[in-house]
Amino acid sequence: MSRTSYPRHKIRITLLENIHPAAREALTAAGYTVDVIPKALEGDELAAVLKDAHVVGLRSRTKLREAQLALAPRLMAIGCFSVGTDQVEIDAAARCGIPVFNAPYASTRSVAELTLGCVIALARRLGDKSGKLHQGQWDKSLSGAHEIRGRTIGLIGYGHIGQQVGLLAEACGMRVLFFDIQRKLPLGLAKPVPTVEQLFDEADFVSLHVPETAQTRGMVGAPQLARMKPGSYLLNLSRGSVVALDALRNALADGRLGGAALDVFPQEPTPVQAEWRSELAGLPNVILTPHVGGNTEEAQRNIGIEVATALIAFIDRGVTEGAVNFPQIHLPPRDGTHRLLDIHKNVPGVLASVTAIVSELGANIEAQQLGTTKDVGYLVMDIDRQLSDAVRDRIAALPSSIKTRLLY
Ligand code: NAI
Description:
Layout: E1 12-16, H1 21-29, E2 33-37, H2 43-52, E3 55-58, H3 66-69, E4 77-80, H4 90-95, E5 100-101, H5 108-123, H6 126-134, E6 152-156, H7 160-171, E7 175-179, E8 191-192, H8 196-202, E9 205-208, H9 222-227, E10 233-236, H10 245-253, E11 259-262, E12 286-288, H11 297-317, E13 337-345, H12 350-361, E14 365-372, E15 376-384, H13 388-396, E16 401-407
Parallel strand pairs: 1-2, 1-3, 3-4, 4-5, 6-7, 6-9, 7-8, 9-10, 10-11, 11-12
Antiparallel strand pairs: 13-15, 13-16, 14-15
The chain binds 1,4-dihydronicotinamide adenine dinucleotide (NAI).
1,4-dihydronicotinamide adenine dinucleotide binds at residues 83, 105, 107-108, 111, 156-162, 179-182, 209-211, 213, 215-216, 237-239, 263-264, 291, 293-294.
């Protein structure tokens, strides 16, 4: 049976900010002691948690900067139960020997479903119809209402979300075109187009699924909107900076576009900000949602399970696959050995020093894997059991070592 060097129940994991209960269940079932604090923490309250925790799980509101990491002597991993990791200074965490895990794709399906919902809602002008009826107006006009069957959706960005949108759209009878800067295998009957311009020319619905990069910032502005077919629709459920909103506003106000759906905005309000108004508010057939593409119970549960699973794999087996700031190591477990983890400064000569220690002590290395990033090296080594404690002590004493751990 595999055991961590430390009894599992002595490993303290603190989950902040209402992380989905599935995470607590998985971590408790793995044998760790899990504390749950429903709110975000800062200042002294956060310092008190960091003093003892071996692992901290957070969502987006608790910030872990270098100053906070310095208060966490035992911290061995951070779980960001979110798509991004902006809330943590990940390079500083790496220098402290702490891998950071997140769940970049757990909300893929939720975003794809909302996108398809918006495609239908735009085609039927649902936002306007519902708004009017809320005001007591019974507007049954069919003007501007269409089926989506047989129409063309153009996906810019054919990654995790783009591909799912393509599959859902095709199931509804749509023709799917996509443009991506990487070569992507088309799913179903989707067709790549050689230039993004062709996609703007041909699509009835243009849907954006790109990350925020120097290249995508402002990639949809007046020239691109001018290419779009009269009466066509734009959807952005990716990142707010991708679309120039003033140009979109003009295209919608002129009636050149048939409508738009936006879930993300260049400047989004903080959770406590009471009121926020978009410059597109009040325009016809414009669906505005407050960055909720990935906000479903299912996505939160997926995030909880995905990050908890990654944390367990790291604590129990030293696996760092999926960590955003660490060398990616996944050494299959090997019976009859002890596993030594050495997180060290990425300076020349570490492997030579480790090898010298192992041979001096007469230990046998059954398997090993080393990975490095800019600042950090991570060595996982399976060695024979008799000598593992001595090897650990000598390696931990090397000046290059940041954190050294033995898994029995
Ligand atoms: P992904 O990384 O799987 O796919 C992005 C794709 O865009 C990649 O295939 C990439 O090659 C392509 N790409 C990058 N630059 C491009 C360019 N200049 N032109 C064309 N293609 C380009 O990412 P994923 O998971 O599909 O996410 C897509 C977007 O959705 C991201 O911006 C993400 O932040 C956003 N998102 C929004 C959510 C919401 O709540 N509305 C929730 C989750 C993600």
